[in-house]
């Protein structure tokens, strides 16, 4: 579809209100069972950097904010980092409810079984073949490999809570 056709899709506001011009889609939140496993997956496997951690001991949960950014760009000062973090797109917030990691039967719904809801997050990589080979070598669980199905240009891996992470490459294979 052309941009003109996209602007004419029923329900679409072709010209957003100028009051929204500087809005930034900042973050998505996922609840995770075992924060150590999740932090390992998102930092070691996918390359995210931990930007901030907020603890709420009275409510028994903690928040972890991560992003795919050059670590050199992350402000060292806590207050400056918080302001900076709230101004950039693409933050992943992991919410850990304390104690869930100790309950063998506990699991969050990943949204991809009935009743369906949340589907996945997506990471763009420069070389999808190399990325998938690396994920395979790291023992990452796949929902869909590049060779599976008809869509050979994308893959889905699963994080420790079985949330799907779509892997795409911006340029054609």
UniProtKB/TrEMBL annotation:
Keyword Zinc: yes
Catalytic-site annotation from UniProt: 166
Pathway: Secondary metabolite metabolism; methylglyoxal degradation; (R)-lactate from methylglyoxal: step 1/2
Class in the EC hierarchy, top level: lyase
Cofactor: Ni(2+); Zn(2+)
Pfam families named among the record's database cross-references: Glyoxalase
Superkingdom, taxonomy of origin: Bacteria
Keywords from the UniProt entry: Lyase, Metal-binding, Nickel, Zinc
Gene3D superfamilies registered for this protein in UniProt: 2,3-Dihydroxybiphenyl 1,2-Dioxygenase, domain 1
Residue numbers binding Zn(2+): 93, 120, 166
Single GO term (MF): lactoylglutathione lyase activity
Residue ranges constituting the VOC domain according to the UniProt record: 24-170
EC number: 4.4.1.5
Entry's cofactor comment: Binds 1 nickel ion per subunit. Binds 1 zinc ion per subunit. In the homodimer, two zinc ions are bound between subunits.
Reaction(s) catalysed (UniProt annotation): (R)-S-lactoylglutathione = methylglyoxal + glutathione
Role of this protein: Catalyzes the conversion of hemimercaptal, formed from methylglyoxal and glutathione, to S-lactoylglutathione.
Family: Belongs to the glyoxalase I family.
Name the record gives this protein: Lactoylglutathione lyase
Record lineage: Bacteria, Pseudomonadati, Pseudomonadota, Gammaproteobacteria, Pseudomonadales
């Amino acid at each position: 579809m052309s941009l003109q056709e996209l602007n004419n899709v029923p329900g679409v506001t072709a010209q957003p209100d100028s009051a929204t011009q500087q809005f930034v889609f900042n973050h998505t939140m996922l609840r995770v069972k075992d924060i150590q496993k999740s932090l390992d997956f998102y930092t070691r496997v996918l390359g995210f950097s931990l930007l901030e951690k907020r603890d709420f001991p009275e409510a028994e949960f903690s928040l972890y904010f991560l992003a795919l950014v050059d670590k050199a760009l992350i402000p060292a000062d806590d207050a400056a980092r918080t302001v900076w973090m709230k101004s950039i797109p693409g933050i992943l917030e992991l919410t850990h409810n304390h104690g869930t990691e100790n309950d063998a039967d506990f699991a969050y719904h990943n949204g991809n079984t009935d009743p369906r809801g949340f589907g996945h997050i997506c990471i763009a990589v420069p070389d999808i073949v190399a990325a998938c080979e690396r994920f395979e070598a790291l023992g990452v669980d796949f929902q869909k490999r590049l060779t599976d199905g008809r869509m050979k240009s994308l893959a889905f891996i699963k994080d420790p809570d079985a949330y799907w992470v779509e892997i795409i490459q911006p340029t054609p294979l």
